[in-house]
Structures are given as structure tokens and as C-alpha cells.
Amino acid sequence: MSATRRSVLLAAACLVPGRAQAFFWDAAPESPQAEPPRIPVPVDPAANREAWFTGEIPDEPFNVPTIDLTLVPPEFRKQLVDYDGPERAGTLVVDTQARFLYLVREGRTAIRYGIGVGRAGFTWSGTASVKRKAKWPGWRPTEAMLKRRPTIPRYVAPGVENPLGCRALYLYQGDRDTLYRIHGTNEPWTVGGTDSSGCIRLLNEDVYDLYGRVPLGSTVVVKTAMPDVMVQRERDERPRSDNQVILFR
């Protein structure tokens, strides 16, 4: 718009009573734009799987593999953060949409861990408690999984190749197993995403750290705005025993 034309329009706006805030027809008023919600970006696997693994934490009967953390986006690395939620110290808070797990501490702080979540299963949110903890758990598929994928192993023994990783926390509501687990993973590039099997997965070194901080009976609050992620269970399956965690692909 030319300076002369702009001056004429401003003068007209000033001369018309009650129209002192007239707008130019070719300059719409700006309105504040709400920031879109942050969508977590999955971590891409390295071209060479072995490039992820750089060391070990001594453990029994296997050492815990550690990874090159520079391959993990900074927000998904373990860190101490401010926390202003209502939960008491010692509570685990799982935010499945943001892909974070918080261990609430005193002084309005929390240890935050990056997590990965499964692609399928029943939506589940609410409060549970840690009723069982396992070091180097084993894994068995369900009958439904075997029907869909008959070539998968019938049992994966504890070890560094086990999909549950080096530690698992089993969540219950009263005496009922929710079939919901917090566990490690042998695929660290899945932390921060939803693109592989399982429920709530942490880096092995992170679940190793978390396991030592969380006593039996700890409260777990699971929050989600997502309609179709979460619990490790089949729609046509009865509850499984504690070491028969159901995974999805």
C-alpha cells in the first residue's frame, strides 16, 4: 500500500465517529496463535546396531549394556526437572503422550526418563501400584500372538536380547494384574516413539536406575490423551502370569 493511500485511510478512520480503530482492508489484524502440541519424534535406529552400545554396567547374571547417549534426543535422556504436579514424592507418573516417566521427588522436582510406548492394545489410564519387581525377566508370547505370527519364539530367556530388558516393574490394582509393565528394552532407538512392541519401555540403563529407586508398593499414575496406546494385553486373552508379558508388533 502506498504512503498516500495509507494516509487517506487513516484520515477517514479518524473522521468517522466511533471508528477510531478502523483497519485497512488489506491488512487483517494479527491474532495470537496457540502453539500446537509437541509431537514426540521417534529416535531413528543407527545404520549399525552395534554403534548404539558403548559399555556395560556390572550386574548379575548379565552386565547391563549402556548406549551412546548422543544418539538419543536430549529431552529423552534421564534428567532432574522441576515438577509442579499434585503427586507425592515417590510416585511414578507416566505421561504416554509426551513420552516421559517422572519419579516425583521432594522439593517439587522429579527425575524424568524418556520412554517408548506400544502401538496397540487397550487404552488404560489410572492409578496402580508396583506389586512385583523382576531382574532379567523372561518373556512368553500369548496364544493369539502365536496364531498371528507362528514363527516368533515360544519363550525368550532372560538376557541382553530379551525384549523386556534387564528389569521389569509389574503393575497391579489391588490383587488384579493390569498386564501393564514398565521395563527395559534391547532396542534403545524405540525410546521416544510408538513404533515397536511393548508397553512402557526405558533404556536399560534407565530402568536399572529406576528399579533401585522404586520400592514395592509404590504408586504409579498413568496419564494419557491418546486413544489407542497402552496396556499389554490381547482382546481375546485371559490374564497372563507375571512373566508372560504380552507384546505387540
Structure description:
This protein is α+β, with helices and mostly antiparallel strands. The chain starts with a helix and ends in a 26-residue tail after the last strand. A hairpin with a 2-residue loop joins strand 8 and strand 9 (176-183). The strands form two sheets. The chain has a nine-stranded mixed β-sheet, with helices on one face. Strands 1-2 form a two-stranded antiparallel sheet. It is globular, with a radius of gyration of 25 Å. It has one domain (49-223): L,D-transpeptidase catalytic domain-like (Beta Barrel), CATH 2.40.440.10. The chain has three helices and eleven strands.
Topology:
Blueprint: H1 3-15, E1 53-57, E2 64-67, E3 79-82, E4 92-95, E5 100-105, E6 109-114, E7 126-135, H2 143-148, E8 167-173, E9 176-183, E10 200-201, H3 204-213, E11 219-223
Parallel strand pairs: 4-11, 9-10
Antiparallel strand pairs: 1-2, 3-6, 4-5, 5-6, 7-8, 7-11, 8-9
CATH fold node name = L,D-transpeptidase catalytic domain-like
User: Overall 3D geometry?
Assistant: globular
- What is the helical fraction, as a range of percent? 10-25%
Strand content: 15-25%
Q: For the record, give the distance between the C-alpha atoms at the N and C termini, rounded to a whole number.
A: 58 Å
CATH architectural type: Beta Barrel
Q: Please, how many domains?
A: 1
CATH-level-4 superfamily name: L,D-transpeptidase catalytic domain-like
Number of helical segments with 4 or more residues: 3
| Structure class | alpha+beta
Low-confidence runs: 4-31, 226-249
Average pLDDT taken over every residue: 76
Radius of gyration: 25 Å
State the strand order across the main sheet: 3-6-5-4-11-7-8-9-10
- In the CATH scheme, the class would be Mainly Beta
Major sheet attributes: 9 strands, mixed
